[in-house]
Amino acid sequence: MGNPKKQSSTERKEKLYAATRSAVQTLCTTNPLAVNSRDKHSRTPLHLAAWSGHAQIVDYLSKNKADVGAAAMDDMGAIHFAAQKRSFGSC
Fold first, then answer.
1. pTM summary value
2. Residue closest to 35 by CA, chosen among 77, 68, 84
3. pLDDT tens readout for residues 39-72
4. Which residues 6+ apart lie within 8 Å of 39 measured at CB?
5. Buried/exposed code over 4-43 (b: 16+ C-beta within 10 A; e: otherwise)
6. Are 23 and 31 in contact (CB under 8 A)?
7. What is the DSSP letter of 47?
8. 44: closest CA among 30, 32, 34?
């Protein structure tokens, strides 16, 4: 029996990110109102994707009617979250 190749940390992260992106797409397809849902701090999925640096998910949500001007409980928008984390390199 051979030794199965171990997945690198990067490979695991890429698979997790792909699953997350797929879950977001499925949720938005099955429940279009979810794109602007809020958590207990009034953050939207767009806020959380921006904070996490998930540019493809931010792009997907923006193209699927996410409210890009939505403010969280602390009056912070998704752009502020991205800037705080320096998530997209251009902030």
1. 0.79
2. 68
3. 999 999 999 999 988 889 999 999 999 999 999 9
4. 48
5. eeeeeeeeeeeeeeeeeeeebeeebeeeeeebeeeeeeeb
6. no
7. H
8. 34
